[in-house]
Amino acid sequence: MLKNYSKYHDSEKFHQRIFKGIPGQVHGKVWRLLLGVDAKKAQNPGKFEELKEQAKLRSNQFHQIDSAVCWTFRNHLMFQKRYGLKQRGLFEVLMAYAMYKPEVGYGQGLSHVAALLLMWLGEEDAFWALVQLMEKEKYSMDGLYKPGLPQLEKLQEHLGDTVQCTMPTLSKHLEEQGVSLKTCTTHWFIQCFLDAVPFHLALRIWDIFILEGAHVLTTMAYVTLKLNKKRLLKMPQDHIREFLQVTLKQAWDQDDNIIVKHLQASKRDLAKRQCLLPPQAMPGQSCSLDQQPVNVPEQPVPAPTTLQGTETAQALEPLCPHPESSAPLAETPPVEPATFRPINSIQYFNPTKADMQSNAFLHTSPKTMPSVELLSTHWPLVLPTSTTPPPPGSD
To answer: CB burial class (10 A; 0-12, 13-18, 19+) of residue 137?
Structure first.
């Protein structure tokens, strides 16, 4: 089927295969095909290397990106070693993208997206895959990170309207408890659920997201609230915030196939209610209560073919190896710069829109910020004068 992708890519059979889960050994190939990476790269020969050279001369975001790289999938085998091979690759991809789209630059959560791509793609392919996710209207991910955060605000407002439309009891309870979905769901969208669900489920969501586009994020947010509705209705304010921001990942006790069935059923339900995407993305349509919700289908779903992993790496529990890696994980503690605070390390952390735009997640000062010379020792990309190859064993 992959050999005849142009023939099968719009077929129902191909879509069904994606929903069942992409086998680990072809994950990268399928993502490349779905995102059109090869065509984009062919249109821009040598561009990635050129951007890396430009970053050496003009980038002003290496401190921010260096801090973000350190905290990205920090317990994952691929990214565990400080200044290791994959951390270097992630640093270069993010620096190159910041030069490619300076109006977007680097935004909080973008490192997780790039790191996920790097797990199955080489550096240049991961870069162009990231470009496609950001530029294509089907995904519109640049709006989650550019100044003003237009896509984030749009999706969150749409989620709030959808919950009020379809689950008025839950919407009223959240309002009475003084809980805003905007403050509790920010990391769901900017990290595309990579830190809100177990890693193996996140891969299934990402497969569907790359296949179908932005509506998968809002539908998954809707499914998350719907499946936990009874639990949330019994919680007071602080418990709701802690659950949605901190402990949600441990609450997914259903099989991945069941969650995907809920996702498919909710997609059909929201499409019938004309609530699948914000009104701006679907002109002339508005959320309607006239349609009845679609029940979850009863037919069995074939077992997934994805390789199951452990928790995604931002959690501080068991280390999670790459699905294709069988190497044992070292029990070395990660290097943690004292000046950076990731979202999920702070309970009840409610970033505002102003915080997101001003990069308030990064608390740095001239006294604690590493010097350019120190960073160039580890990141040869940063300064053009750093032509000496890295010391043996640094990879």
So the answer is: exposed
